[in-house]
Design brief:
alpha/beta; Spore Coat Polysaccharide Biosynthesis Protein SpsA, Chain A; two-stranded antiparallel sheet; 9 strands; 13% strand; elongated
């Protein structure tokens, strides 16, 4: 790889992290398709009841593979972070995470790595919605679920340019990964989305990489009905934290005034207008025009202020990769 700033050739060692749980039928196929550009492969047996780790050790002859076992199931996030830590300790430069169920094509690894090595991004993630001709092959429930989750993720993470937030095909520079608060990131299915929120607090540059998902006989462990409520509450939490960190703790701007003022005016106008509307219905007395204006104006002004804040927030995407410049400022989050 070439460092364009210095004109020198730099070898970037790539590690692939594969969390595995109930994917014994697919794991060897995934490993066999990983090309020679990868230096190390970490298979994380997340207390798999099928003994995936033992199966890999007994049947895989690739000397790049290391099997790490969890004594207790920690979820895909916990398994991924275990792989990250091992790769960082071994001096790897770029950490790629793919699933063990065969839905992610290992041939795309360099597509995820290239933007990082060229200094365009700190973190890359897959986007299965880029090619509209192939979206129709995706299960309809996933289409709807991903659309809703993507909207919530844009609000909570601040990455308005991203879609398909639960996509687990990712790559990250080790210098960025080592600054993530591994003890605070969600360890289960909210892992990818929570990671985006944490990356935003570091002001890391994140981009989507177009990809096509493969659907075969694998069985998904993700049940949409069980995670909707949990995801919503965590998105609200992360949105609140991000707004506080970026607009009140880290920096102050006009947007720091627009959001609270807009919410206050919108809340007052809605409450005041609603109260008089209900009173008018109960008494049969027409509400005076002045009262209507006194409720409508705060609502309109409040909406304009909130839209102004959203416009500022959308334009405030991180644009300068942090790993390229050697220094990362870490903002502590609670």
């Amino acid at each position: 790889m070439v460092d364009t700033d210095k004109g020198t050739e730099i070898l970037q060692e790539i590690a692939v992290v594969i969390p595995t749980y109930k994917a014994r039928n697919h794991i060897l196929g995934v490993i066999n398709e990983i090309g020679p550009e990868v230096t190390r492969i970490y298979v994380i047996d997340d207390c798999c009841p099928d003994g995936s780790g033992d199966f890999v050790e007994a049947n895989c002859k690739d000397d790049r593979v290391s099997v790490i076992r969890h004594l207790e199931n920690q979820g895909v996030g916990g398994a991924t972070m275990t792989g990250y830590k091992a790769a960082i300790e071994n001096g790897m430069d770029i950490l790629v995470k793919i699933d063990s169920d065969g839905q992610m094509d290992p041939a795309l690894i360099m597509d995820f790595v290239a933007p990082i090595t060229s200094g365009e991004a700190d973190y890359t993630k897959g986007n299965r919605f880029f090619d509209l001709e192939k979206v129709s092959s995706m299960p309809k429930i996933r289409l709807f679920g991903n659309a809703m989750l993507s909207l919530m993720c844009k609000l909570s993470s601040g990455y308005w340019n991203l879609f398909d937030p639960t996509n687990g095909y990712t790559a990250i520079h080790a210098d960025v990964a080592r600054h993530l608060p591994f003890n605070k990131i969600s360890r289960r299915y909210f892992f990818e989305t929570d990671t985006l929120f944490r990356l935003n607090t570091l002001r890391a540059v994140v981009i989507d990489v177009p990809m096509e998902a493969k659907y075969g006989d694998e069985v998904s462990n993700l049940k949409i009905s069980k995670i909707v409520g949990e995801f919503f509450l965590k998105h609200v939490r992360n949105f609140s934290k991000r707004i506080f960190y970026n607009y009140f703790l880290r920096d102050m701007s006009l947007a720091s005034i627009e959001l609270p003022a807009g919410l206050a005016l919108l809340g007052f106008g809605s409450f005041y207008g609603g109260y008089h509307w209900i009173t008018s219905i109960q008494t049969g007395i027409t509400t005076p025009a002045g009262t209507v204006m006194l409720s409508a104006m705060p609502v309109l002004i409040g909406l304009q202020l909130i839209l102004g804040f959203l416009s500022y927030d959308i334009s405030s995407l991180p644009r300068r990769p942090i790993h390229k410049h050697g220094t990362i400022t870490r903002w502590k989050s609670r």
